[in-house]
Design a protein that fits this description.
With 233 residues, the protein is α/β, with parallel strands linked by helices. The protein has 7 helices and 5 strands; from the N terminus they run αααααβββαβαβ. Strand 2 and strand 3 form a beta hairpin. Helix 1 crosses helix 6, helix 3 crosses helix 4 and helix 3 crosses helix 6. It is globular and about 50 Å long. It starts with a helix and ends with a strand.
């Protein structure tokens, strides 16, 4: 059970970094392996809470990519348990986020990056699986711009510009519900330079969305596009 959930979580983390569109090259084989692991997971049936959370992440990643063979069947016990574990984890994260003393200052800095936006803090995603530190809503981005902060230290630190597997999978899920996802570092001893950086990230993101909206205006495509992911690491 542990091996299955770990392997599927590894697949989800890698797939979140993969190019959009149909699978090609090594991703074809990797997706086939993930489909086999999903079938094995259904046969195993029982997982630890962390394992169910990992399966939920893999399911959400597969769902966002339209990979039905890797999705957990909606009527299965494993899907129900994975969905419940994911929601419980999100509720716990939401409670912790609401107590974060840094949150009001990040929200204020984010608001400076766009004029006239509605600013929400500690927001649960529409699918109740993920939480965002800040969500900005405006006419140019009706689905919203979400800011997720990640704190990494010690052996889990990633180089600047490179997202961890967790951050990549979170952004892959959030981008299905929002116009843009900003991944930002969380600094407990934040100073003026940090908050200026948050403001800059928001302003740049809004500019990219406005440019994208102009390009899409002449397109006949009606499907809601996946949101922009802005790596602020």
């Amino acid at each position: 059970a542990h091996d299955c959930s770990n392997a599927l979580y590894a697949w989800a983390s890698a797939r979140a970094h993969s190019p959009a569109g149909p699978a090609a090259g090594m991703w074809v084989a990797y997706d086939r392996l993930a489909a086999i692991l999903t079938t094995q997971s259904l046969a195993v049936g029982q997982f630890a809470p962390l394992g169910y959370t990992q399966l939920s992440i893999a399911h959400a990643t597969a769902e966002s990519r339209g990979l039905r063979s890797i999705c957990l069947p909606a009527n299965s016990q494993v899907y129900a348990a994975a969905n419940q574990a994911s929601k419980q984890r999100a509720q716990s994260a939401l409670r912790s986020l609401k107590r974060d003393p840094l949150l009001p200052r990040v929200a204020k800095a984010a608001g400076k990056g766009v004029e006239g936006a509605t600013i929400l803090t500690a927001v649960m995603s529409p699918d109740n699986r993920r939480v965002s530190a800040v969500v900005l809503q405006g006419t140019a981005f009706p689905r919203g711009i979400t800011i997720s902060m990640f704190e990494q230290s010690g052996w889990m630190r990633h180089p600047k510009g490179q997202l961890s597997g967790t951050a990549a999978s979170v952004s892959a899920q959030l981008r299905t519900s929002y116009d843009a996802v900003i991944i930002a570092p969380r600094h407990t001893s934040a100073g003026p330079a940090y908050f200026a950086y948050i403001t800059q990230l928001v302003a740049t993101t809004v500019q990219q969305l406005q440019q994208g909206a102009g390009a899409a205006a002449g397109s006949s495509e009606q499907q809601q596009p996946a949101g922009l992911v802005v790596n602020g690491w």
